[in-house]
Design brief:
This protein has a two-stranded antiparallel sheet. Strand 1 and strand 2 form a beta hairpin. It has three helices and two strands, in the order H-H-E-E-H. It is mainly alpha-helical. The N and C termini lie far apart (about 60 Å).
Length: about 120
């Protein structure tokens, strides 16, 4: 019994299309701006996460990396310092910074809201 193999060739056709061809598509400016918002929010959240982990593990503040993270993230965490009426929960040199977690939550919500606001013009009604 002989087997026959048939080869088929697929051709790909590239067609230039405008954004008007797709009514639900995102305009390029909206997409780029939303990506910039998410990138900036992600960098800020990563910085705050590093701050939280460093303080939880009791990182040495005289170390260059830990000092950079603390100094850079301080302006973003400072509005939340006295949010709660208790002192930092401290175990030896490590601290559990609740205000850093709250700052991460708030800035994450702000980034999501801004990204939504930037792309709201393309949403269908």
């Amino acid at each position: 019994m002989a087997r026959t193999v048939q080869e088929t060739r697929r051709t790909t056709e590239y067609v230039d299309r405008d954004a008007d061809d797709y009514p639900d598509s995102t305009a390029p400016a909206d997409t780029i701006l939303a990506r910039i918002v998410w990138f900036a929010g992600g960098v800020l959240l990563a910085l705050l996460a590093l701050r939280f982990i460093f303080s939880l593990l009791g990182a040495n503040t005289s170390n260059g990396i830990a000092n950079f993270v603390y100094d850079t993230s301080h302006p973003f965490v400072a509005p939340f310092f006295n949010l709660f009426s208790y002192d930092n929960i401290q175990y030896g040199v490590s601290r559990f910074e609740v205000y850093t977690l709250v700052a991460m939550l708030i800035y994450g919500l702000v980034a999501a809201g801004l990204a939504y606001l930037v792309t709201i013009s393309r949403r269908s009604a």
